[in-house]
Structure formats: C-alpha cells, structure tokens
Amino acid sequence: MKMLQYIIRRLLQLIPVLLGMTFIVFLIIRAIPGDPALVILGQQATEDAVAALRESLGLDNPWYVQYFQYLGNLMTGDLGESIRTRTPVNEEIWPYLATTFELSFFAIVIAVIVGVNAGIISAWFQNSWFDYTAMVLALVGVSMPIFWLGLMMQYQFSLQWDWFPTTGRENVRDPVNAITNLYLLDTLIQGRFDQFVVVLKHLVMPGIALATIPMAIIARMTRSSMLEVMKSDYIRTARAKGEKMFWVVYKHSLKNAVIPVLTVIGLQTGLLLGGAILTETIFGLPGVGRYIYEGISSRDYPVIQSGILIVAFIFVMINLIVDILYSIIDPRIRYN
Amino acid sequence: MNKKAWLLFFVLLLTVSTALFGCSSDDGSSDDGGSGNDGGGDAAEETDGETQDTLVFGRGGDSVALDPITVTDGESFKVTKNIFETLVEFGEQDTEINPGLAEEWEVSEDGLTYTFMLREGVTFHDGEAFNADAVVANFDRWANGTEDKFYYYKSMFGGFGDEEGHVIESVTAVDESTVEITLKRPQAPFLKNIAMSPFAIVSPKAISEMSEDELAENPVGTGPFKFVEWRRNERIVLDKNEDYWNSEYPKVNQVIFRSIPENSARLNALMSGEIDLADGINPSDAAQIEGDDNLQLFERPSMNVGYLGLTSTREPFDDPKVRQAMNHAIDRQAIVDAFFEGRAEVAKNPMPPVIPGYNDEVEGYEYDPEKAKALLEEAGLGDGFDMELWAMPVPRPYMPDGQKVAEAIQSNLAEVGINAEIVTYEWATYLEKARMGEADAFLLGWTGDNGDADNFLYVLLDQDNIGSNNYTYYENQEVHDLLIEAQSETDEDTRNQLYMEAQELIHADAPWVPLAHSTPLMAGSANLQGFMPHPTGSDWLHTVSFE
Predict the structure, then answer these.
(1) Which of A154, A167, A169 to mutate to test the interface with B (most CBs of B within 10 A)?
(2) Residue at B489 is within a domain
(3) C-beta separation of A286 from A21 below 8 A
(4) Cα separations (Å) of B193 from B92, B154, B452?
C-alpha cells in the first residue's frame, strides 16, 4: 500500500516537471534564430510567400499565445501537426519511437550483460591482467567516437566479412509487414522467422555501437561498487564459512553492489533513447533522434517540441522505475 | 575452484562464445542467401540466376510529400519524376524541350498562345483516361492556389487567379486531345517552366476525390512507375506501370527509394549490395569507386554555381575595383582541385555552361595577386583591410565543404594584405542574415530550377530581387534592362544574345567571385545499365536495367 501511494505521489510530481519542461523547450526552440517559414520555403522564396506562410502557421502570434495554444492542444492529447510534412505528430511519431525502442532495448541488454559481468570479474580479480585489459577497454569505449566506430564496423563486419548488413532495419527487397512497428515482434507475430533473423542482424552493429559507451560506464561503476562491497565484513564471513567464491561474488556481493549500478543503467537507458542520433544517422535508421534532428533543421516546432517532450517523459519514467526497483532489491530502502 | 581456475574459465567462456557468435552469424548469412532474404547475399544471388529486376536507390533524405506541385525539395521530385509526367519533358541529360504528354505543340507569332496536341492512349494509374480535360483540371487547381501551398507556380508563373503578375490568361480544352494555353504577355521560358517536375499532371479523379493531405501520400500519375507504399524515412516503393504508353519501359519491375543520411554509410551499403544506386557521393571517394570492378561512377551534369558574394552596399565592396581585386586574389583552380577533387569546372560566369545563353567569350579573372594588390592600391586600400568571410555550415551540392574553401580563400586574401575572419552560422540563420545584407562576403550557390538563363541571372543578380535572392544587393540599370527584355523575347538567338551581353556587364562589375560549377557524383553497381543522371537532380529510372 505504501508502495502504491509512493508511486502515485511520484506520478503527480511529474506534472510540474513536465509542465516546466514544455515551457523550457518552447522557449529554447524559439530562441534559435531562423524563420521556419523561410526554412520551409527555401532559398528561392519571395517575401510575400514567407509572410503568408508565417500567418497560416500562426507564427505571427506573440509567443505566449502560441505557448498556451500548444499547451491547450497538449491537454487534449494533440501534439500538433508537423509544419514540414503537414501530418499530425501523433500519427507519424510512433514508427520512429518504435525503431528507437527496439534499438535502445537491444543496446542496453548488451551493455548490461557485458558491462556488469566485466565489472564483476574485474573486481573479483582485481589487478589481474583481465582487470587491466577490461578497464583500458572501458576507457577506450567511453572515449570512442561513435561515428568512426560505426563506419569501421560497417567496413569490417559488412564489407570484409559479410556478417551483417550495413544500414537500415530490414532487407528492403523483402520488407517487413509492419503491425506494431517493433519489427522483432512483427516478424514473430507473422511467423516469419527468416525475417526475424534478418531484422536481428540489422540490429547487431548499431546495437553494439550504441552500447559501447553505456557498457563502459556500467563496467567501471560495477567494478568500483563491487570492490567496496567485497571488502566488507559479511563477505569475509561468508568466505570464512567456506562458501564457494562464485556464490560469494554473484549472490552476496552483487546484491549490495547493484544499487549504484542500477542508477547508472537507468540514466544510460534514458540517454540512449534521445541520444541515438549519431548511431541512427550512420546506420540509416529512422529513429526518434533523427526525427527530432530533421525537425530542428527545418524549424519544425511541433516536431521538436513533441519529440523532446516524449523523450523527456520516457526518461523521467525510467527513473521512476529505477527508484521502485531499489526497494525491491534492497528491502532496507523504504518510501514514506 | 581457486581464483586462477575461475579466471581461466571466464576467458575460455568468452573465447568460445565469440567463436560461436561469429560462426552462427556466418552460417546465418549463407542460409539467408539461399532463401533470398539477406540484404547482402540477395543482390549477389539474383545476379547469379535470373536478371535482377528491383532497383534500390539510396539517397540522403526522405521526400517531404509526393504531390509535386506542393513541394520544393529535390528529394520529393526524385520520386515524383518517375510517377508523373509533364506536358513537355527535358532532354535525357540536358534542359532542351522534348515531347512529353504533349506530342507536338505550336506557338503563335506573338508568343501568347500555345497549342498542345496531346498523346493519345495514355491512362492514369487509377484507370482514368488522360485527355485535355485532365490538363485543364490541373492548371485550374494550380491557378486557384496560394503561394504557401503551390510555391513553384507563383515563382514560375508570377501569381494566381486574377493577380496582376499571373502570366497565364486561360487554359482551355479545344477538343479531347488539344489544349490551348493563352498568356497575358510573352514568357520566353514558358515551355521550360512547364517541363519542371512540380507541373506534373495528376489524375483529375484523385484531385477531386482526395484531400490535399491524402494527395501528398497517394500520388496518381501517368508515369512509368506506380506508387505502392511509403514508410517515412524508411522506404518508398514504386511498381512497374504495366499500362505505360511506351511499352518498352520501364525495364525494372520495382523501384525502392531508401534514405541513408550519411554519405560514407550509403557508399558502404552500395558496396555490400544492399542498394544498387547511391546519390551524394563524396568527391574524395571517387577514386576508390573508379578502382572497384563492382562499381561504376556517374557524374551529374552541372546545373549549379558556387560563388563568393560581395555585398555591394558594404564598404569597401561598394567599389568595383575592390571586387575585381578579390577576383584576382583568389586561386579558383586550386580550390577546385583541392576541395572538389577536380570534379568541377572553374566558374567565370554566374551560370553553368550547360545553359543556353552562356557567354564563353568572357575571360575569367586570372589568379594574379600582384594585379589584385595594384587594384587595391588604386582603390586607396594599399595597406589592405579587415573583413568578415562567411562560410556555410553545411555541405551543399555546389560546395562540398564551405569551411575549407573559406580557409583557402582566407589564405589567398592574406597574400594581398586582406585580413579575413571566417564567420559561420547555423544554415537557416546564415541564409536569413546574408539575405539581409549583413555579410561582407559570403559563400553561397544556386542550383537551377528549369535550366534557363533567367533562373540564374535575373533571380540572383537583378535589382528586382534585392531582399530576395540577390544577396549581394547588386544593382545595374543596364543589366536590369537587358534581363527584362530577355524575359519576353521569344526568339531564342536574340534572347541568348541579350544574356551574353548581361554576363559581360556583370563580369566587369564583379559582384561575385564565381568559384565553381560542380558535377555532383553518384555511384551504382557495375551491372546497372541505362542510368543517366539529369542536371536538374531528378533522374528518370525507367531506362535503368540490370545486366
């Protein structure tokens, strides 16, 4: 019951946060110089055309009128209409979100599995050559430019070894029939296991590229957290009692070391959702990062606003989930 | 187990899983190749057996909409060009006028009446017959539009409905297959205008039954390919139009457009066989493509100009001598060699040579720093001066790398004592500020719309377009008179003569440092045949086939 109350309270607290977010996003976007009407019509436009378009887009209203209009529409679930494509954002954003969800999920799974285990083993065998190698690799991983990494992976794994396709989500010569737009799911629903494999292969390289930085951060965090826990008394007791080392590490130590790791995982997952622009660009994936990016370059206010708002919302939600997970993992944490 | 043994166990586990992962992926790809589902294996497999009949075209961005009259971006026209047709068409690789949906046409003596004899036996993809009424319906729709909806109509025909500037008086169906278009005043580039992709004929049934938004996503034309589906930023699929009036075409059964924003990634996709044709190739990759037996390189004939604009309302560029000095000070050949990889022609006029009326007699300013210094001396600026040099932040077809070109110009200018500071803004801001005349000197360029001289000289350098596209605020009454006269001169030779004169005057006034006419590069797989890149940037794909 306490838990439920806590969740409800947290959800209510989200309202001012989100409201503040809409305001900040709204202001920042309008602070970018450049007239959307001019951007839409392009270099060739005459002044009359620009003026007419500004009027029809409501851009000649004062900013606060525009803001409250936007807010009012938002309350009714209307995210506005893309200025560039003249399609409601509600309608067009889901396929982009789905692409990003699929990619981020895949990436975070890789990052967690590899990162956490590498961190644990490094802590377990502290100062061994494994530890040194893993931590040097983690340092390289954190500082790796994704752009370069992506192109190198394409060169090696696609062109040289022909393991994975270079770009896209699917084989366009045999396109996936979209139902949910989560292609892994769609192919399974339709029983197209051959396509499932193809979609999975399209995810591997962008997934790894995207996972590199979070993987490295998670590994380093796990290692330091584990090292701290493994020095504590109860671990020494467990070992003194003759418990197998594997269980000491993976059961007794991990459970107490995982809280800070979980925080990092939550943050990184949130970042992945919005921060996959580079990966999406190099691998030609139509994700939400690219959606927002294209919105920015054409001053497509509704797209930028809604895109950022949705990503921010997901970010906040993930943080909430992480907070709830704390209490499940560590019963000492209570919410009042 | 002791500590060492555990470590050994983990390392073994890692090695084994890596090996398994690698193997399984490897097996996977050959399995898929067999069932024809793998992106990589597919193309190779198809070429082994029957001839490939699907063309995958990779490009940098997605289309905005597929209703040609509503859009202005090249990525939209690339697609609509293959779904729709226009009354008259450009040549295969030039902007000469050829029959399209109209087989023949006549122009009256006074240049006011155009009579088009339409091609018979043409049907729209929805089964409607193409006839004179269909043409009238399209022109009616356009003429009743507004500028923010039908931008190109206003831009090419001067306005809508009863507006003063609107050049089209009436469009009438004389009979089933004859259309008469009457103009209010002669418009020399009229045929070139109606050959442009925005003025493609859409099925009248679609126009009356669909809303504007639906039309944008459900194009119905008469062209060689029929629209199938569009998933934004992922793919646009077109199928062969079995009822196409020219039964020889199209050669392939299906065309798929994919957008891959990154140039290098797109080239990688081409090399792996996931796409068959790639737009937007970096000049620096050209040599590699030429050396690859599986690929071929295409050069798009140039219809652009990249230039350094000198704002003639700002000191010291209000003095023609200083502008001439700038022209002498900059080594264009070196810029073309270094940053266009030689894939461009050094420019001396404000328009490319492919355009009728190009004046080849004009002698470009040669690179001569001494002469530049002498001219500066004459202008009373022997000690040089400080200026801002604006460089565009994004690669453009007419200038692959604005920043580097600016750096080269900066060092050229330093040699003659001019101290240039490189300035840049985000692209939309850059355009807006330059348009306001806030730049001393700015890099910019232009890609032609209809392949007519008017579309370069009048649009970019006439005093009428100050505050619009004449970013340099260049004003010359003589040039203006020539350009206006040329607009209504229907005799081709006389008209070209007027443009040649204008180019000489512009050359002497030197409002620009014309830099280069670039030839944008494309690449395709080696078994691709019959592809001809068009200078307008929208290519016909119906002639393409595979060996």
Answers:
(1) A167
(2) yes
(3) no
(4) 17, 11, 9
**Which residues in chain A are closer than 8 Å to B50, comparing Cβ atoms?**
none
Are A291 and B233 inside 8 Å of each other by CB?
A: yes
Q: How many domains does chain B have?
A: 3
- Letter for the amino acid at B388? E
Q: How many residue contacts between A and B have a Cβ separation below 8 Å?
A: 199
B196 lies in a domain?
A: yes
CA–CA separation, B434 and B442 (whole Å): 7
Sequence length of chain A is 336
Q: Residues in chain B, how many? A: 547
For helices A89-124 and A129-143, the axis angle rounded to 10 degrees is 160
Query: In terms of domains, do B393 and B370 share one?
Result: yes
Residues B308 and B433 in one domain: yes
Do B448 and B321 share a structural domain?
yes
Burial class (CB in 10 A: 0-12, 13-18, 19+), B447: buried
Residue B16 placed within a domain? no
Residue B418: strand, helix, or coil: coil
Residues B180 and B233 grouped into a single domain: no
**Domain spanning A95-329: which superfamily?**
MetI-like (1.10.3720.10)
Cis preceding-peptide flag for B204 (omega within 30 of 0): no
The verdict on a CB contact (< 8 Å) between A166 and B264 is: no
Q: Which helix (H) or strand (E) holds B521?
A: strand B521-525
Please tell me the distance from the alpha carbon of residue B459 to that of residue B466, in angstroms, as a whole number. Answer: 9
Q: Is the same domain home to B137 and B167?
A: yes
In a domain, B66, yes or no: no
- Which ranges of B286-418 does DSSP label H, i.e. alpha helix? 286-290, 320-329, 332-339, 369-378, 402-415
Domain that holds residue B163: 85-203
Residue spans of the domains in chain A: they are 17-75, 95-329
Along the 547 residues of chain B, how does pLDDT read in single tens digits? 455 666 666 665 655 555 444 444 333 333 333 333 344 444 444 444 567 889 999 998 888 889 999 887 888 999 999 999 999 999 888 888 999 999 999 999 888 999 999 999 999 999 999 999 999 999 999 999 887 788 888 888 888 888 888 999 999 999 999 999 999 988 888 999 999 999 999 999 999 999 888 899 999 999 999 999 998 888 999 999 999 999 999 999 999 999 888 888 999 999 999 999 999 898 889 989 999 999 999 999 889 999 999 999 998 899 999 999 999 999 999 999 988 888 899 999 999 998 889 999 999 999 999 999 999 999 998 888 999 999 988 778 888 888 999 999 999 999 999 999 999 987 777 887 888 889 999 999 998 888 899 989 998 999 888 877 889 999 999 999 999 899 888 888 899 999 999 999 999 999 999 999 999 899 999 999 999 999 988 999 999 999 8
CB burial of residue B422 (10 Å; 0-12, 13-18, 19+): middle
Beta bridge partners of B181: B114, B171
Same domain flag for B508 and B463: yes
What's this model's pTM, rounded to 2 decimal places? 0.82
Strand partners, B106: B115
Q: Which residues of A touch B146 (CB under 8 A)?
A: 52
Taking the CA atoms of A90, A96, A101 and A102 in sequence, report the sign of the dihedral they define: positive
- B88-90 and B97-99 strand pairing: antiparallel
Return the residue of B nearest to A55 by Cα.
B148
DSSP code per residue over A215-278: HHHHHHHHHHHHHHHHTSHHHHHHHHTT--HHHIIIIIIHHHHHHHHHHHHHHHHHHHHHH-HH
Residues B102 and B177 in one domain: yes
- Residues B278, B308, single domain; the answer is no
Shortest distance between the Cα of A228 and any Cα of chain B, in A, equals 19
